[in-house]
Structures are given as structure tokens and as C-alpha cells.
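pasting for the record
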Amino acid sequence: DVLYLLPAFHQLYDMVKAKGKIDWVLSESACLVEKKKASLPVEFAYLQIKNAWRLSSQQLTVLKHLAAWRVRRARERNMALNFVFKEPHLYELALRMPQSKSALVRIQSLTPQERRLNPDIILNVVNAGLQEFDNTPPGEHIERISRLIDFPAYKQTLARFKQAVSEMAVEHGVTEEVLASKKQLNQLLKYKWFNVDECRLMGLKPDVLTGWREPLFAPVVNAILHEESN
């Protein structure tokens, strides 16, 4: 396959150049580099756990400690996160908040490798989360995680952005997916609507407000969100 890479590069380069989009490609590459350099603070690693939105504030506080512990341990041992502790099992620990070895043993989903961990390590992390919750004034507890689908304006706003993307794609002679995927539009709405947003916590802006996309999308974003707020 390597034999075809250089000819494929030349062919793709010529196609992009013919469309006058070399600057877009270079800008996209620079944006990808910046995203790879950024990282989510460990204390917010819980935001990336699937189904975390289902948890109460107390359970989220426990999950915050568990997720941070998993990230630190993975870095110390140069391991993938799921090799330290599988994500669904981390979620179940936060859901059930075991406070004894017998309660921990009753969690049947844990793998043999996870069971070989010193149970005191897990219990201490869970206990740290519970203590933080108990010692925090109610008004300062972790907010439950929002979902875009819970916002009444979400579907209508997303539809308007999709229509704008469709029109821009025709104007610039590229596919809609090149301009903005649904995932990237959702990233934008989370950035604009959520109190706690991964993108902002990483010191980044949404993809559509970065690099070559920014001059295309900034006026559209301002117009649509301004109208939705009125």
C-alpha cells in the first residue's frame, strides 16, 4: 500500500489545489495539532464517561474521583484507560458507591484484572468522593450533566445550522461533511449552552469557530443563536 501513497498524495493535492482549498487543508492540519496538544483537566475526566448524565450530584462527585484516579494511574503506568479500569465498570462503581469490601465483591461485572486491584484503593477513592460531597455546601455541588436533547430549542436550532451548512456546501463546492458534521454542530451548541463544557475546559473553541471555518461560520452562529435567544 505504501507504494501508492505518494501518487495518491499528488492526485489529491492537485484536486485540492484546483478547488483553491490548499489554505483550508493547511489550516485544518494546524487545528488538528492544537486539539491533540490539548487535554482535559483530570478533575473533569468524569465528563467523558458514557451515561454520566444519569448520575446524581453525589454519584458524579464519586465518579469525578474515580475518573481522575483512572487517568493518573494510566499515565503513571503508560496504559490505556480501559486497561486500568473499564469505563462501564467505573460508571457502575459511581452508581453503586460501594463502601465495604463485601459491597465491592457484589459488583459482578468487574473483570478478574479489576478484582485483583487492592480493594482498599477503590474504596478509598469512593470514600474521598463521598467525603467531598458531604463537606460541600449544597449550592456548590457538582451540577448534573446536561444533554442537548433536554434543551427545548435544540432540534430547531440544529436544523437551522444543518440548513446553513447545506447552503455553504453548495456555495463553496464541497460536501457538507467537510464543512461541519452533526458532531461538530453539537460541539458548538454545547460550548454555547452548557455551563460546563469540555471544549472550553481544554482551552479550545468549537471546530466551526476555529481556523478556516471561523470566517464562514461566525456570522451564521451569531445570527442563528441571537434569533433563538429572542
